[in-house]
Design brief:
Elements lengths: L2 H5 L5 E12 L3 E4 L5 E8 L1 E6 L2 E6 L3 E4 L5 E5 L8 E2 L1 H6 L4 E5 L11 E10 L1 H8 L15 H18 L5 H22 L17 H10 L7 H8 L3 H12 L3 H19 L4 H7 L5 H12 L3 H13 L1
Parallel strand pairs: 1-9, 2-8
Antiparallel strand pairs: 1-10, 2-7, 3-6, 3-10, 4-5, 4-7
Helix pairs in contact: 4-5, 6-7, 7-8
């Protein structure tokens, strides 16, 4: 399995909601969301989106991802987006998955200028944190999109249409999985377009040597990995591998491994499905005490206290 697939193995989107947005006239709105990933599928027409200092135009067939739900403004093409109406409350109260984005001067006889699908997802913050920290505010971060994006968009629209028409078992799981597929498509397109000299650890996903080491660390974090063993997997000398990994990823290989192990351990503790001893084994620690010390050093509390804290959140 490739490194990106392994990186995303424990990244799960959940509580996915979707809305059909119809824009007419000089419409504009703003969204302020925290800890949410948003996607826009442009079914017809065009619109502009401003996120921080970044601005993009999107057209029919485009798919846009906002990785960390930065506050943003969307508005009709050839409009300045002024007087944007907050959409957050409307999204919370919307039960029909349909929102009309009508300008004040809207003529009801006119057809919508733009038709969008907005998809919002929750996620496991700890597992996806390193990934979100290096992504731009808008994906893709340029207006050219591959032709394959049209095919994926068509499949997504058909799937959402079918799921919205029928209340079938597994509906939520289907929509959550489709959101994950959209995220993967946006991420791999972004990684493939990264210039060779970019200062981003995602560049390691394209590195023919480092990607092998990353894949095995994510696939088997419980193994007793050493620099020597990882270098063998990568097909490099020990010193060359260690330096290359640090230069590209920004930290030594074993530091990266420990960080991943402890984030994974925190996820297992939140899931409440395994004993602390079992989790210690699953993430590669020889003893519970060694695991507890490492976990407390990063999270500030013991694994037991961490589990109890999240147990309370589940029951309240």
């Amino acid at each position: 399995m490739d490194a990106l697939s392994m990186l995303l193995e424990n990244v799960h989107l959940c509580e996915t909601k979707y809305y059909s947005l119809k824009g007419s006239g000089n419409w504009s709105y703003s969204i302020t969301r925290k800890d949410t990933i948003l996607f826009y599928l442009v079914m017809s027409g065009s619109f502009c989106i401003d996120v921080g200092d970044n601005s993009r135009k999107a057209h029919t067939g485009d798919m846009i991802m906002i990785p960390n739900a930065y506050q943003h403004v969307c508005y009709a093409l050839d409009y300045d987006g002024s007087n944007a109406k907050p959409l957050d409350d409307m999204l919370l109260k919307c039960e029909e998955h349909m929102i009309e984005l009508n300008a004040d001067n809207y003529n009801s006889a006119e057809k919508p200028d733009s038709s969008l699908i907005l998809i919002q997802c929750q996620y496991d913050k700890e597992m996806i944190r390193p990934l979100l920290s290096v992504l731009p505010q808008i994906l893709p971060d340029h207006e050219d999109q591959p032709e394959s994006r049209f095919e994926i968009l068509d499949v997504g629209i058909k799937l959402l249409s079918l799921e919205s028409e029928h209340e079938r078992m597994g509906k939520t799981a289907v929509i959550n999985h489709w959101a994950s597929i959209m995220m993967i498509e946006c991420l791999r397109t972004h990684i493939e377009s990264l210039p060779e000299a970019t200062d981003c650890w995602l560049q390691a996903m394209k590195d023919p040597y480092l990607t092998k080491a990353l894949a095995v660390m994510h696939n088997a974090p419980n193994q007793n990995w050493t620099i020597h063993k990882l270098a063998e997997v990568a097909g490099m000398s020990r010193s060359s591998f260690a330096q290359r990994f640090k230069d590209v990823v920004g930290m030594p290989p074993l530091t990266y491994l420990i960080d991943y192990r402890l984030r994974l351990a925190a996820r297992y503790l939140r899931l409440q499905q395994n004993s602390i001893s079992r989790i210690s084994e699953m993430v590669g620690y020889a003893s519970d005490s060694t695991f507890s010390q490492a976990f407390k050093r990063v999270h500030g509390i013991s694994p037991k206290a961490y589990r109890q804290m999240h147990q309370k959140k589940i029951t309240t």
